[in-house]
């Protein structure tokens, strides 16, 4: 499942190299994904030509990682990373080496790759070279290290997280020896920069079974050694299968790809509370913005859930609580929460198995969407009246009372009780100041 234009231009690169007497193959993720029938986004090429020879052969090249033997070749619409056959030597501190050594043949190049499914090459006629039987492992659904797992993980500890990521995204399982290698080497993950681990977590969460990934990280013990210590107590491993159902249910819904929606579902399914989620993601080096967004969506949901559990609450009180929460947590949070809710209600069949927290209480109608649409102001700056004008009109000194008053006005406008017009708001403000003589 490679876009035809990409294949054609990739084949041109291979052809040009082979016509000059070099060997050249598609290799790695693109071959694996093609054999699995998955979409291919980019195609890597391995060749016997040196980087200098590659640069000389093509009109447009970029020396992306020339010290590692990689040159990017720009064709008409697509770019290809072309890497000279190499092996990696001198691993230091359990990270990928800074030095590489070029080698003569493909098989040695494949040998340095992490897993058998990533060590398959394909020539321009579609002929496959698979010395480590990656195809067999793909068919069996297993992740197997090339060579001794413990050695490969000791060389480069990131491979352990990659193993878990592939297991999660593809629904594969590590072989016995790969798993035991992982358990032996797990503490070495502490040498790897958290950003690189985070990049793997990002791919995991984007896939269909992120919970499986997190669980493998936990079962292997890796989670405890990931540079930033994770508050394990915060992760309560219950209702997990149901959680996968949640994510599966929203898979084709609008907004399903948004990381804040996916993380909010995943973490909430592990009973991580809204105020715990932000710090947790920040420790995993996710951006402040994403961490905050996830945290806010969960907090929003917690507020709404308390109301679901309270059957005595009136629809008006529910609406007013919704609006207050939307103002407090912001428009984007409310939007995110609504998208998530909509996706869940639409796609979670009543037969969905498992004990999904809050599912029994999930209302199937959506007054909230209506309430949300009716909100015309979200911030004090949206009001037609500002604090200075209130001070001028009342002759009082500013203070906390003013913020409180402004927030009251904001709520009243958001709830449709007051029009957002300067004189309307000012009259109301004066009346409040007069009745509350003590402020
Ligand atoms: P993705 O779908 O995420 O692109 P990928 O397998 O293509 O997966 P890349 O990081 O793009 O992953 O790497 C391309 C290829 O390089 C891999 O298929 C593998 O053969 C090799 N590779 C990548 N990282 C490592 C590593 N840490 N150790 C050994 N080989 C690696
Ligand atoms: Mg790739």
TrEMBL record:
Its cofactor is Mg(2+). Coiled coil: none annotated. Its EC number is 2.7.7.72. Keywords: Magnesium, Metal-binding, Nucleotidyltransferase, RNA-binding, Transferase, tRNA processing. It holds the Pfam family PolyA_pol_RNAbd. Residues 373-428 form the CCA-adding enzyme C-terminal domain. One of its GO terms (molecular function) is CCA tRNA nucleotidyltransferase activity. Residues 24-144 form the Poly A polymerase head domain. It comes from the Bacteria. Residues 171-226 form the tRNA nucleotidyltransferase/poly(A) polymerase RNA and SrmB- binding domain. Belongs to the tRNA nucleotidyltransferase/poly(A) polymerase family. PANTHER family: CCA TRNA NUCLEOTIDYLTRANSFERASE 1, MITOCHONDRIAL (PTHR46173). This is CCA tRNA nucleotidyltransferase. It comes from Paenibacillus brevis. The lineage of its organism: Bacteria, Bacillati, Bacillota, Bacilli, Bacillales.
């Amino acid at each position: 499942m490679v876009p035809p234009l990409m294949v054609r231009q990739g084949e041109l690169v291979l052809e040009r190299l082979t016509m000059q007497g070099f060997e050249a193959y598609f290799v790695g993720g693109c071959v694996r994904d093609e054999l699995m029938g998955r979409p291919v986004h980019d195609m890597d090429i391995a060749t016997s030509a040196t980087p200098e020879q590659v640069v000389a052969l093509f009109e447009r090249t970029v020396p992306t990682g020339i010290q590692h033997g990689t040159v990017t070749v720009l064709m008409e619409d697509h770019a290809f990373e072309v890497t000279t056959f190499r092996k990696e030597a001198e691993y230091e501190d359990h990270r990928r080496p800074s030095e590489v050594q070029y080698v003569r043949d493909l098989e040695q190049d494949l040998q340095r790759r992490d897993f058998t499914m990533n060590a398959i090459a394909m020539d321009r006629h579609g002929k496959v070279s698979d010395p480590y039987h990656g195809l067999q492992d793909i068919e069996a659904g297993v992740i197997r290290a090339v060579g001794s797992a413990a050695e490969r993980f000791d060389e480069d500890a990131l491979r352990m997280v990659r193993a878990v990521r592939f297991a999660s995204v593809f629904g594969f399982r590590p072989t016995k020896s790969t798993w035991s290698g992982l358990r032996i080497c797990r503490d070495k993950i502490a040498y790897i920069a958290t950003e690189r681990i985070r990049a793997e977590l990002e791919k995991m969460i984007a896939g269909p079974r992120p919970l499986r990934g997190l669980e493998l990280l936990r079962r292997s013990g890796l989670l405890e050694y990931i540079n930033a210590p994770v508050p394990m107590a915060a992760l309560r491993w219950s209702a997990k299968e149901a959680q996968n159902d949640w994510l599966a249910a929203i898979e084709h819904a609008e907004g399903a790809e948004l990381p804040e929606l996916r993380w909010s579902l995943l973490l909430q399914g592990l009973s991580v509370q809204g105020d715990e989620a932000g710090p947790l993601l920040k420790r995993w080096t996710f951006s402040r913005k994403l961490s905050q967004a996830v945290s806010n969506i969960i907090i929003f949901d917690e507020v709404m859930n308390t109301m679901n559990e309270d059957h005595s609450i009136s629809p008006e009180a529910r609406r007013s609580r919704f609006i207050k929460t939307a103002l407090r947590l912001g428009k984007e949070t409310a939007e995110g929460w609504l998208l998530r809710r909509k996706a869940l209600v639409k796609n979670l069949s009543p037969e969905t198995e498992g004990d999904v927290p809050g599912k029994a209480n999930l209302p199937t109608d959506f007054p909230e969407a209506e309430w949300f649409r009716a909100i015309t102001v979200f911030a004090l700056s949206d009001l037609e009246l500002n604090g200075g004008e209130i001070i001028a009109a009342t002759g009082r000194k500013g203070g906390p009372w003013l913020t409180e008053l402004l927030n009251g006005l904001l709520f009243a406008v958001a709830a449709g009780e007051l029009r957002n017009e300067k004189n309307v708001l000012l009259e109301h403000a004066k009346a409040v100041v007069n009745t509350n003589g003590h402020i």
